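Attaching the record inline, Q. Sequence:
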Amino acid sequence: MSGPKTSRYTLTPEQRRILAEQRRIQREIQKNTVMLKQNVAGLKEIVSKVDTEIAQFRRIVSETGKSTFEIDTLESVRNKAMQILNDAGTVSEKSGLSVMESTNKKLKEMTKVLSDGEVKMSSELRKADEEFREEINAAISEGFTISFIRIEEELPAVNMSDYTSKIDAALEEIRGFQISNELRAKFIVLKEKAAEIDSIDFIENYYAMSIIPFLKECQAYNSLFLEYGARFEELCAEYEVLVGELGVPKKQFSFSLESIEELEKEIQDMQKIIQRKEEQEYISECVDKAMQEMGYKVIGNREVVRKDGRRFTNELYLFDEGTAVNVTYSDEGQITMELGGLDDQDRIPSEAECQSLAQDMVSFCDDYLKIEEKLRAMGIVSHRVSILPPEAQFAQIINTSDYCMKEDVVSYEAKKTHKSTATQGYLRKDE
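Structure, as predicted:
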């Protein structure tokens, strides 16, 4: 039975579960690494914004002497945020999954608390600024200033305080909302158009036809994000990890239910590809381990890509003086083991060499069975595809010049006195 042997190896259900759990933990660690980076950046952004507004607020309070906002309380929250950021700076994959998850949770919770505080302070800052301006020049209309999350552009105001204040109040309702970049861009356009209006009748219509629908659109988006936003962010982080693993182009996703569905499908497809790849790598590692435990030593390897695109990996294991076992891994999961003589050129073995190699094939038979036993112990099942007999017609010479050789070997010659047992072959492998 010891001519060329081709088998398809698969994992036992238990071994597949073990690899799947290891993979799940590693992916969770990688996903939390991505989220850690994003959450740190998000909290730093809101801290910077709070610092700017605190400085502005203190300046106005020093001028007016008026303030009902507890600025010290917000500053205390800001300092806690900085402590969390400092602690997060010491966290890495080496810290473990539970520490990373806990840190990400603290970052997100603190971002929410500080953002809520910033929204309140920004509202108070706007009111204090308006009162201050009215006091220094009561005759000059303040125009309208529309505040909006993460939008800092200052645009010209129109001189119709009643309706412009009404518009400002409507938009004030969505401060702190999570909205898309498209909605932010739409806000800028709405604000610019409002600044150009000089008719009371027109601005009233503008409020009803443009501002109110926009407000509802933002409310709908925010409600959807509150329900599915965390899921979307986790999927994006997981997607980024998988894309990096596979080295494929990264797609851009904007938050929506459709994007969540597409991300889930993309992730599922990539996970299947990676699962198959990791299982094949595990099988390859176990074959190598089993071969080395049997006394075989790797002496060369190569990668082959055929014209049809199929890929093969070859590993040469020293069997005896001038002979080796060529283990071929296909990208379809098949593994072929075949024994051959060694030379540094392509040639056909002589008749004497064919007979001698056939005897070597017989010697390899017991070893092959022991290799399969070792693989079973490591959770790998062999599904034999083709087991050819140890006949001279299957004798071959392996051209070592096609391989990346790790050490020098001698060329094969037919033996006059040949080893008669597999044990003798095994001992020679260890020499």
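The longest helix spans residues 13-64. Confidence is low (pLDDT under 50) at residues 139-159, 416-428.

More tomorrow.
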